[in-house]
Amino acid sequence: MLRRICFVFVMAPMSLPRLSPDCLEALDASIQRPAYARDAAAGIVHLGVGAFHRAHQAVYFDQLMAQGEAGWQIRGASLRSPRVAEQLNPQGGLYTVVERDGPSTHLRVIGSLCDVLVAPEDPQALIEALAEPSVAVVTLTITEKGYHLDPDTGALRLDDPAIADDLQHPSRPATAPGFLVAGLAARRAAGLPPFTVLSCDNLPDNGPRTRAAVLGFAREVNPDLADWIEASVAFPASMVDRIVPATTPEDVDALAEMAGYRDAAMVKTEPFTQWVVEDHFCHRRPSLETVGVQMTDDVAGWERAKLRLLNGSHSALAYLGALGGYAYVHEAIADPVYAGFVEQLWDEVEPVIEAPAGFDAKAYRRALTGRYANSALNHSLVQIAMDGSQKLPQRLLASLRAQRAARRPMDATLLAVAAWIRWQFGESEQGEAFTVDDPLAEMTASALRDAGPKPGDRVNALLSIEAIFGRDLKADPAIVEGLTLNLTDLMQNGARNCLARRFGQREDG
Ligand code: CS2
To answer: Is the CB of 306 under 6 A from ligand 1?
Structure first.
């Protein structure tokens, strides 16, 4: 499909040139690329330059600049590892979005990122970047655990070791709340207007939560500064959606083979993309509505629908699918037993999401099934299973609470939560040990050790972790019993058998 570019035709993929501004011109004509000037001062700083940011927000800003709206270059910052900076900086910030839809592939080189700072190596450089006069918006994808909030009260956890450390040394922070406050303090000191803080993480009320984290931190450091932030900084909420599986070395090789260059920073994704943003900015605002972003006053309904239908079923498929021996989402959803289960889960969740006006649940579910079936993505179930303790509350427990309040069926939802509990055993159905990749893994492991082997004791032990389950669920005998029955079923029969018996008969599955 593509003409090999600039270089020798028979080169092995390893010896091909690396993507860089110098070879843009020579790319095959079918590859979309930035045709705008890339040297303007950055209008955005983004914290957490993972694959999701590169396949989602950065693409919208690339489109905006391609349409002629200048000034939205992004300076990325990694709050932890230097890996993304090592991948992107030698490429002048350029990378390829590989959009895969079954057998068809579309390549697009994105130019909106200028460079990536590595915060732990030079925290001051990031604070200075945040204080640049040209910066109007700071966007975040720092994952659920990057906010350090108490799930019960929604307040910043001042006893969290990383937050406590930043409060000791606010001028060389390591956390996102620490950097945002240091950046805002520097702007205030320089007499500059503040920037808008736009969270793009998969959390309900991500705007108010970010605000709580930033204000909670600022109050401890300097009450005057906190008052200024409270009065003048906008924290719009947003709902983000695009499936972006982790890039593998095979993906990098496949792109090299296809396009004739190597790109260490490429991301792979699906054609679908959605961004709903609360229209509340305190500084220059990008005209995102011109590039397909839904600007609205009510993001919450969109967030609920997405988190509970998409992410809830994703997490359920991750635990049940991986326990049942599947590696990828498309494999699990191709099994009618799993497809039937997902339909049942959606039947239970849909009536309690309080969806926004204009939301067509039937079409949304149909589209999701198609997205999950995209076999070219290889979206790993183990990747989705990661950080479950941070994901469970908004993806599955929120549905459970709403179903309980409305006295509605919750069989499939309970099974999904029981599967998360089963996953915490860190042992496959064949008895092989695996690592539970989760910030609370030690806590869940020690609770399970103390509980012993009985399913009921194990359920009670994990339900007692208030950071995940709050206080209400462990006090509800129907929830405890429902989870115990489901966990017993999973332990005795295994995930697939359990699903086959209970959800395998649906005609529409
Ligand atoms: C997934 C999400 O890894 C996960 O937990 O559920 O990353 C999901 O792919 C995105 O939210 C889709 O927008």
So the answer is: no
Share of the chain above pLDDT 90, in %: 93
Q: Which of 270, 311, 374 to mutate to test the pocket of ligand 1 (most atoms within 8 A of CB)?
A: 311
Ligand 1 contacts CB of residue 311 (under 6 A): yes
Stretches in the chain below the pLDDT threshold 70: 1-14, 505-509
- How far is the C-alpha of 479 from the C-alpha of 463, rounded, in Å? 10
> Does the beta carbon of 200 lie inside 6 Å of ligand 1?
no
Pick the CATH number of 6-296 from 3.40.50.300, 3.40.50.720, 3.40.50.620, 3.40.50.880: 3.40.50.720
Annotate 469-482 with DSSP letters as a single string: HTTTTTT-HHHHHH
* Domain covering 300-503 in this structure, CATH number: 1.10.1040.10
- Is there an atom of ligand 1 within 6 Å of 314 CB? yes
Residues with Cβ < 8 Å from 159, sequence gap 6 or more?
none
Q: How far is CA 304 from the centre of its chain?
A: 15
Q: Which atom of ligand 1 is nearest to the CA of 242?
A: 13
pLDDT tens-digit readout, 343-376: 999 999 999 999 998 899 999 999 999 999 999 9
pTM to 2 decimal places: 0.95
Q: What is the distance between the alpha carbons of residues 276 and 241, in angstroms, rounded to a whole number? A: 9
- Pocket probe for ligand 1: among 307, 314, 423, the residue whose CB has the most ligand atoms within 8 Å is 314
Name the residue with the closest Cα to ligand 1, atom 5.
384
